[in-house]
């Protein structure tokens, strides 16, 4: 049987998993997908993901690709997968793509958003789904600071310390903060992200929002390339991988 | 020390609890509140709740009252309670109320809403927070049907079979369905609710939404007083107790 290259859009609640990437001694999204979909397709699968989301990070539109000789029709995959996957991982779309298409390598840009719950008291329904910030955030000031991260920049100041020595230049296409009642969502659309970059940007945004820093601090911190000047790494459970874009747009 | 009557507004994620009301062999919200707040106030507490939410039902604004001789200032209670309560139960407000005030008996009306996720595929982030309905719901038709439940009526058709033989007449002040993308929320404001009444109304609404019934079926089912003509009992995890109103309004 001829081999097909399959591309899936995957949503998950990251609470129960040790991130996307397969690990030796902890359950990952990748392992569950490879094991469960492997049983569906009838052979061992090697699945590539567009983004390596961390433990506790959620996804609406993670994208994965894999090659298969299995015969299941592509339109049937989302429903068939519901029968083998746990309820916190859902295949939202499936498509056959050209053999050279790769979820990570072919990706042109990604959108993440980060959710903050801003009230002096917690919301028990958002414990696993938003960062609880008690002090009132100045969303105007936070929004103003975002102009300093738009464009192509060295984002070393927002990279995890001890991260791999990859090129720290990334291009941010769009960034904004939206407020709906006590919920603030900060959205980041970039061509690529360094390890912990969104969470470190959000930690810095919160320092700006509580008036510990002014809006232009975002510029000076970025320019300094010094991780120690940026804010704390915001917790993983407020982060969502929203969408991954390819040459043809959204899949 | 003089005895105070304390009124709390409580939010909780009902996922981990066997409902509000204390039970012999299962953990309830009431038990956790009585045990944990009892340790805070330094004596055994007997807590009354405005509504007996079922296993898995959530609350933004459950109201409870209890008498205490403890000396903790009322303004300190929400913060102090965070130190003793699990993260899925949060005291949002606290007030001293007149001695005769009782969370359930003094309540004038309550608002519940029910959340439906309407898409042919599940959303893993709403598994515990919305009822997943795959078939496309006709929200116009659902909304039209709601006029038949507004006002004072015998709601026997929507009462749990085998429920207590209380007077089945209740007054619905307002009801509406709102849509935001794939999420539909049906809101019910009534002076009182029979056991499973909201969930049985929602089961019937869904039958109307999928065109199994027409909008006027809500009238005929209500008039029949026959539980077997109404829809299934919608699952508990889509139901939220939003607010409880008293003579003075919201607390």
From TrEMBL, chains A, B:
Family, per entry: Belongs to the tRNA pseudouridine synthase TruA family.
**Positions with a binding annotation for substrate:** 112
> Which residues does UniProt mark as catalytic?
54
Please explain the role this protein plays, according to its UniProt record: Formation of pseudouridine at positions 38, 39 and 40 in the anticodon stem and loop of transfer RNAs.
State whether keyword Protein transport applies. no
Chain segments annotated as transmembrane: none
- Tell me where on the tree of life, at the top rank, the source sits: Bacteria
| EC number(s) recorded for this UniProt protein | 5.4.99.12
Coiled coil segments of this chain: none
Which CDD domains does the UniProt entry name for this protein?
PseudoU_synth_EcTruA
Which keywords does this Swiss-Prot/TrEMBL entry list? Isomerase, tRNA processing
Q: Which residues form the Pseudouridine synthase I TruA alpha/beta domain?
A: 10-104, 147-247
This chain belongs to the protein called tRNA pseudouridine synthase A
Q: Name one GO molecular function term.
A: tRNA pseudouridine(38-40) synthase activity
Note the subunit structure.
Answer: Homodimer.
What is an annotated GO biological process for this record, any one?
tRNA pseudouridine synthesis
